[in-house]
From TrEMBL:
It comes from the Bacteria. It comes from Streptomyces rubellomurinus (strain ATCC 31215). This is Holo. Gene3D superfamilies: ACP-like.
């Protein structure tokens, strides 16, 4: 079964107990749902979910802004 944005959401919520709601279009960068260190971990988690490494050119901040954009950019392949 292919990974979806909910898999990424569950990963974020497990690391941020103060965050109670997170939908597909919440800007996780601007709202500071994830820290800069967690961003690096998030990239690694997305690589794990998709089963291959990201190219450095793919790691664009805008592609990681929302859970929906993560799914559209990296998980639907």
């Amino acid at each position: 079964m292919a990974a979806t944005w909910t898999d990424v959401r569950d990963w974020i919520l497990a690391r941020n107990p103060d965050v109670t709601e997170l939908d597909a279009e919440t800007d996780i960068i601007d709202t500071r749902v994830i820290t800069s260190l967690q961003f690096v971990e998030l990239v690694l988690h997305v690589e794990e979910l998709r089963g291959r490494m990201l190219e450095s050119s793919e790691v664009d901040l805008d592609a990681f802004r929302t859970l929906g954009s993560i799914e559209r950019t990296f998980l639907r392949q």
